[in-house]
Amino acid sequence: MATVAGRKANFLRLVEVPQEPNPLGKATFVRYGWQNTLFADEHTSLLVVVEFDRLPASDFLSLIASGNPKVVFDLRQVPRFDISHLNRRLVLDIFSEKRIEYVDLSGRMSEGRGRLTAGEVATVAFTSRNSVGPIVLIVDKPQADEEYVGAFVEAMPSAPAGVWDVLKLPLGGLGNSSAASKRNLVFLSHANPEDNGIAAWLSGKLAIAGYQVWSDITKLVGGELFWDDIEEAIRHHTTKFIAILSRVSQTKSGVLDEIDLAIRVERYEGLDKLVVPIKVDSLPFTEIRANLSRKNIIDFSESWANGLSALLDVFDRDGVPRIVTKGAVALSETLQGGLRARLSVEYTPEMVVSNWLPIIELPARIDMVDITAPVEAVRSLCASFLWPAFPYLRLIGLFGDDARGRDFEANGYAAHTEYQIPLTEFLDGSPTVLPGLARQEARRHVVSLVRQAWNSLMAQRGLRSLEMASGALAWFLPKDGVEGDWLTFVDDKGIQRRKKLVGWSDRRQVFWHAGFDARLVLSGDGHVVIRQHVIFTEDGSTPMGDSVRMHALRRSFCKSWWNDRWRDLMLAFITFISKDMLVRLPVGPSEAVVLGQPLRALSPVTAGAVEYLVEEEAELVDILDGPEYDFEEIIFEEQELENNETTRE
Questions:
Q1: Which site among 7, 420, 439, 609 is 20 to 30 Å from 642 CA-CA?
Q2: Strand order in the sheet with 135-139
């Protein structure tokens, strides 16, 4: 391969001009003005250097579609394509479809003394290959340096146009354009006040995910010329415009004006996929206005959680920028200045209560029992066994218990303990007596045993159950399950309090019940996660069969339940099922899985008081359900304080 000594590269750089450039497209990869040739659509002297890990997936696909590369050299030590929705197989299929030669040099790069020099890579790359571009180099960060790229170009054959034009991606170091870097707002357009609930919820969720959110309930305060602010936000700062579509919003002139402006900005400034419509109620798709009906509409009407997941996938796919601040601080910044609430974060330590119950004690072994029943009856026997059990071929697995003895009678059959396996050996999936048992299967069996023990204890305590979509049972107290429906517990500050885990909603004519399920986690020292639910009944005991109505009730009834309420409900429940501050789940005549009280941790920050403005309080808190839930409890606490009867640990 002939090379020309001292050959130079013409590095193409992004130059800021008053008119903001469009995202990557065909124009990015061709020569302009007097440089145009008959072959401009395929810039034969173009070398594109790509830092793949920093490039949005959309820009990489634009490079392939609009740049029309002839060959792609992958110089990375670990050639992966896992960003956003892409993967290696999909990218290689795209290369094949576009007839792009893909050359993986990772094997050569790791030979001998490690990473090859730029000249050695060029020699390997272009031996027996034509040097007509466009050519793409996918590189790690050290190879994106201009000195390395310059050395690579010097070792390359002559460019068809005499000099190689080098384009480094991503442009400008971050993102795909200066316009993209300036557009960082997610704008929520919704009917006010009718759709304030979903707007506030979505604002908080997106803020926690790291996105900068703009809506009239979080960024508009009294006295401002709000339309000027909205137009400024949409025209110059919005990267995604979320149109919250409902029956009401389709009749609101303000919402329609915002959508019209966003559509015009999208079309005239070439901002593809700026507008993202989401449907939040029973509005028929056929009634959605024409300027939105042709778009991919995300459906939030059945499940806000599923809708949010789909929306975040879109944000990830399109490379929507995130702000640096995350979590509680991001949420605080989003809510600051809003009409709905003002939430502060104080940088003082605070003890917080988790929903993890630590495992204090597990039985030391697993017993595998042979039973005289027919093999086809083993599975059904496990379902009706006195103690938690699982089937394994013709054997039955139990937590080991010496009080049971090696020989015993179960369900009318004689049983004999064939194997006694240490629990740690069983969980590792390495018991020599059960060579076909995989580790994952063994751990599933132990999880099943603990779940059975939990469900058995809940039934013994008189709780009712509802099977959730995951198959887990959520357990709840029926009406009058305890005297007066009150449970006494000690809160996170050591104060003795009472709480109701069941009550009546006069407005909705239903009973509500706090429900709980448990899931064993075996990683680390092991713990049980308590998950909370709200279940509705019409008779105080039987869960209503209408799942759609149940879901709707949860949305409206629980919207004013903050973390402290969920925490206290959980603490009251755990106190109810505990004995001597421990939760004992019997798994045999004398053995039990023993759980401790919820784990606590010291948080470096404290959430300050939430201050609601009077004129907005009725929208944020359902007044008819707030006081009816806690009124008696508040009186009880005040009376205790007056009588100096409050106790502390």
A1: 609
A2: 9-12, 164-169, 46-51, 135-139, 71-74, 101-104
Taking the whole predicted model, whether its pTM rises above 0.85 is answered as: no
Structure-token pair, residue 22: 């469009």
Residues of the chain with pLDDT under 50: 1-5, 16-21, 32-40, 110-113, 173-181, 220-225, 325-326, 332, 335-343, 609-649
* SS3 at position 446: helix
Contact of 155 with 91, CB cutoff 8 Å: no
Q: Which long-range contacts (CB under 8 A, 24 or more apart) does 231-235 make?
A: 231/261, 233/185, 233/187, 234/187, 234/258, 234/261, 234/262, 234/265, 235/261, 235/265
Residue type, 329: V
- Residues 156, 148: Cα–Cα separation, whole Å: 13
Please state, in angstroms and rounded to a whole number, the distance separating the CA atoms of residues 516 and 491: 18
**In this predicted model, what pLDDT tens digit does every residue of 120-177 receive, in sequence order?**
878 877 776 777 878 898 888 778 877 888 888 888 887 776 777 888 887 754 333 3
Between CA 97 and CA 82 the distance in angstroms is 19
Using alpha carbons only, how large is the chain's radius of gyration in Å?
32
Residues of the chain by 3-state class (helix, strand, coil), percent to 5: 35, 25, 40
Q: Tokens for 611, please give them.
A: 């201050």
405-419 pLDDT, tens per residue? 899 988 888 989 999
Q: What is the 3-state secondary structure (H, E, C) of 381-411?
A: HHHCCCCCCEEECCEEEEECCHHHCCEEEEC
Burial of 604 (0-12, 13-18, 19+ CB in 10 A): exposed
